[in-house]
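hey m, so remember when u said the tokens were messed up on ur end? i reran from scratch. heres the input so u can diff it against urs
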Amino acid sequence: MNLAHLLQRMARQYPNRAALFQGTQAVATHGAWAQRSAHLAQQFQTAGLKPGDRVALFMHNHPRYLEVMFGAWWAGLVVVPINAKLHVREAQWIVDNAQASWAFVTRDVTTDTGEQLQGLQRVIDVDSAEANALWRLPEDHQGAAPNTPIAERQPDDLAWLFYTSGTTGRPKGVMITHRNLMTMGMAYFTDVDAIDMQDAIAYAAPMSHGAGLYAIPHLMAGARHVIPASGGFDAAELFELGRALGPLSLFAAPTIVKRLVDHAEQADITPERCAHSFKTIVYGGAPMYVADIQRALRIMGPRFVQIYGQGESPMVGTALSRFHLSDTAHPEHAQRLASIGVAQTPVQIRVTDSHGQDLAQGEVGEVLIQGDSVMAGYWRNPEATQAAIRDGWLFTGDMGSLDAHGFLTLKDRSKDLIICGGSNVYPREVEEVLLQAPGVSEVAVIGAPDPEWGEVVVAFVVAQPGVTLSTQALDAFCLNEIARFKRPKRYELVSSLPKNNYGKVLKTELRQRLSQP
């Protein structure tokens, strides 16, 4: 099993069908994409790289991202995706830990510091003359089917070495196999969305993460792959791009969804007109609050699907389908909106206590996942692997509860649980309430040490533009909506919340703020 066979299969069937786009401009057919990836694989082999060797991609979104990714797999190599927003020194740590041989970069990743990656056999700027020479096909290969054989790989061979965000220390290398990613690709069709050849997936979120992996199911279906001309997220650009190429599909963090909805509302784009630009918006990676998804459905219409997964089970955990999101007549619709859906087809989900014993419906415990999407382990870190995978189950560190119909509702990360006077307070529950308060735009709730209560609840609150918030009004609102012990004992009115590159609020940074005198 080698994921490169997916590209070879599509190139044989539809060699002249446009596959890769930069903005509205087609830059490669399926046939040309396969030729370039196969030729690159040959360059890897000529340079002495062997199956299992690592190749790093420290790149912003770029059409050559997919050509390198599949070229590496064609040669049996392992792709090491690195978030392009990391500092070069952070990327260097990943390169060293992964023991990568080559790296492909976009020039802008070193613009700010002028530093370069060190200790590799080659570092190639994908827009350079060196890269153009590397990609250039011999004259007798122009238009011909690739003749470089695809390296034989086993299902459990490593394909994707993904490094976690490392917010609490050095990132860990998550070992993702060809089987894991093939499972993820198939699960898209059964649990997320149907795809046909006329579809187009836009890469507005970093291709180094889940957005890039969604190339796999879209390649399976022969769909088009679109890199926005800006190389990233711009709401107006995506609306225009969808109108030009046909409705787009994309993966987006909730913060991106919010900005798309904001644009649609400000530009007075109706749900019917939104349908001309977007087919499916898959969201995940951070909490989506009920108020936000209700607003998104109202303004943009039924084109959303929620997924839950982790780097350790990429894009595969649960899914809240378009149907469930839109089934307003169901008596439990409100509860389902607050959930993250049901287990995707290839996996099983459990909720257990601290001893790994299953809990009753509705009780809160740690979420466990088992299935063919779950990682092989952590790279060069057997202790972390042993802690995360026990008896074949991935212990996610997320806290949640299951209902009678299999819907999973996340409460928080186990580390974010607040214990106030012996009672559990889940920050997300308080955040959901505060987001309904008049004039509130964003909220993050954390616990702060307290000599009397152990911990107290602290809310960081961002106002909507032009609104002045009152802590007294916020407190009165909470007292009217939730138990007194859950309400924040302190409100911090701030202009913005610190977030990482994927839109997740950095609660560690908020805790540091509270600890400062």
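this time it looks ok to me. The CA atoms of residues 87 and 109 lie 8 Å apart. if urs says something different then somethings off w ur setup not the seq
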